[in-house]
């Protein structure tokens, strides 16, 4: 028995695959060839575009170090959210109301995406990452695992980050960094910037295009360069 709860007003496209214990709210519009894995919960008035994959489990070929969840946990998608074509959302992630996730983006397991967030085309969000309300992540950004991004942050296109600097090799524990960057509210990050593990970027700071941020950035400061250095102070964003 599937135990699915699909509201009668929901519209399903062709070749939609819905597995067990899935809930779909009223006035949802599910595109063609969408696959919805067990335990997924979709709110009301949600649009899922063609070829999206919702609630899948992570899988390893025996060559990754991060422990993987093995049982389906609810993927939760809030009311009035939009999921783009070919997007992939993993098990155990929470998407709040009014979130836009654009085509070809992927959000891994155990992430928490707050209301009114925008993830542009081709954005990759690694496991256990948190993104605060009204934050906008533009096209082709890579957000590493265990990252924290607070409210009202803006990432320009192709921003990258890392959560470990060992490169999979034995390293000196004194210099090893594990854990994603922490980006505080109101930060602006320019095109192609790189954020290294465990750094903290203070509130309303500005990261210049192409900067490589290797250390903490004070609030209300602008940094530029490789490695990034403070060049001046800035005013808070309105």
How would you characterize this protein structure?
With 238 residues, the protein is mostly beta strands. It has a domain of 110 residues: UDP N-Acetylglucosamine Acyltransferase, domain 1 (3 Solenoid). Helices cover 0% and strands 30% of the residues. The strands form four sheets. It has a twelve-stranded mixed sheet with strand order 2-5-8-11-14-17-20-23-26-29-31-32, with no helix packed on it. A hairpin with a 4-residue loop joins strand 31 and strand 32. The N and C termini lie far apart (53 Å). About 3% of the residues have low confidence.
Helices and strands in order, then pairings?
Layout: E1 5-6, E2 11-12, E3 17-18, E4 23-24, E5 29-30, E6 35-36, E7 41-42, E8 47-48, E9 53-56, E10 76-77, E11 82-83, E12 88-90, E13 94-95, E14 100-101, E15 106-107, E16 112-113, E17 118-119, E18 124-125, E19 130-131, E20 136-137, E21 142-143, E22 148-149, E23 154-155, E24 160-161, E25 182-183, E26 188-189, E27 194-195, E28 200-201, E29 206-207, E30 212-213, E31 221-224, E32 229-233
Parallel strand pairs: 1-4, 2-5, 3-6, 4-7, 5-8, 6-9, 7-10, 8-11, 9-12, 10-13, 11-14, 12-15, 13-16, 14-17, 15-18, 16-19, 17-20, 18-21, 19-22, 20-23, 22-25, 23-26, 24-27, 25-28, 26-29, 27-30, 29-31
Antiparallel strand pairs: 31-32
């Amino acid at each position: 028995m599937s135990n699915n709860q699909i509201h009668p007003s929901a519209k399903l496209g062709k070749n939609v695959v819905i597995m067990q214990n899935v809930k779909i709210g009223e006035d949802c519009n599910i595109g063609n060839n969408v696959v919805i894995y067990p335990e997924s919960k979709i709110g009301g008035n949600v649009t899922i575009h063609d070829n999206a994959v919702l609630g899948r489990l992570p899988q390893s070929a025996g060559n990754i170090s991060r422990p993987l969840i093995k049982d389906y946990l609810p993927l939760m998608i809030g009311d009035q959210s939009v999921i783009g074509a070919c997007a992939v959302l993993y098990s155990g992630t929470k998407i709040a109301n009014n979130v836009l996730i654009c085509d070809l983006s992927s959000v891994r397991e155990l992430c928490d995406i707050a209301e009114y967030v925008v993830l542009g085309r081709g954005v990759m969000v690694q496991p256990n990452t948190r993104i605060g309300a009204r934050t906008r992540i533009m096209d082709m950004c890579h957000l590493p695992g265990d990252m924290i991004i607070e409210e009202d942050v803006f990432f320009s296109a192709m921003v990258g980050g890392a959560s470990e600097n060992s490169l999979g090799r034995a390293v000196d524990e004194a210099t090893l960094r594990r854990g994603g960057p922490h980006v505080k509210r109101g930060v602006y990050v320019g095109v192609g910037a790189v954020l290294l593990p465990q750094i903290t970027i203070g509130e309303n700071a500005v990261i210049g295009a192409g900067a490589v941020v290797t250390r903490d950035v004070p609030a209300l400061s602008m940094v530029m360069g490789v490695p990034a250095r403070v060049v001046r102070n800035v005013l808070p964003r309105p």
